[in-house]
């Protein structure tokens, strides 16, 4: 079983969250690649059984431009078997808090086995660490281990 985290971050909040989740997935025994979106190419989708998407939100809860390639890759390729989760950071000052998480959630629900979502206010705080644990547990609980 192999996992990846594909994420985008401008000011570092989502990168911090991605790093926390990465560490926790590895600790829970799932070998996980941490992939900034500028290093992503769509053929990588075929290498992974589990993929967590990390995104900030922009412009009325929209996807960041650079995440559109990832979004479209799930729509265009056969990704139904991939267990997915989506997490993000946002600012509740804006009307569509973490709107990009919802945008990915709705697409991944159709095009993959969506297991879990997580929204964090700006930089992850102490409370969010437990929520990251739960995010990883939910993702990993969907993995079927053959015996
Ligand atoms: C111009 C602008 C628009 C934004 N729009 C939203 C938004 O619609 N919804 C939201 O939750 N956060 C919004 N944010 C806040 C960012 O998503 C938030 O600061 C996020 O943590 C940035 O992630 P990063 O540090 O990984 O780049 C916006 C920020 C800026 C500067």
UniProtKB/TrEMBL annotation:
Keyword Zinc-finger among record annotations: no
Gene3D superfamilies given in the database record: 3.40.50.360
Transmembrane segments: none
Swiss-Prot/TrEMBL keywords: Electron transport, Flavoprotein, FMN, Transport
Cofactor(s) named in the record: FMN
Domain Flavodoxin-like: 3-140
Function of the molecule: Low-potential electron donor to a number of redox enzymes.
Classification via PANTHER family: FLAVODOXIN 1, FLAVODOXIN 2
UniProt family annotation: Belongs to the flavodoxin family.
Protein name: Flavodoxin domain-containing protein
Organism name: Gracilibacillus marinus
């Amino acid at each position: 079983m192999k996992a990846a985290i594909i994420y985008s971050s401008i000011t570092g909040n989502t990168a911090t969250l991605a790093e926390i989740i990465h560490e926790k997935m590895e600790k829970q025994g799932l070998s996980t690649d941490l992939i900034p979106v500028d290093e992503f190419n769509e053929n990588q989708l075929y290498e992974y059984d589990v993929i967590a998407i990390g995104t900030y939100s922009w412009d009325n809860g929209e996807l960041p431009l650079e995440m559109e390639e990832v979004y479209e890759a799930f729509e265009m390729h056969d990704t139904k078997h991939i267990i997915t989760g989506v997490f993000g950071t946002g600012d509740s000052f804006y009307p569509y808090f973490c709107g990009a998480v919802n945008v990915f959630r709705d697409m991944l629900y159709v095009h993959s086995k969506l297991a879990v979502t997580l929204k964090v206010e700006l930089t992850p705080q102490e409370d969010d660490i437990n929520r990251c644990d739960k995010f990883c547990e939910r993702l990993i609980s969907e993995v079927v281990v053959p015996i």
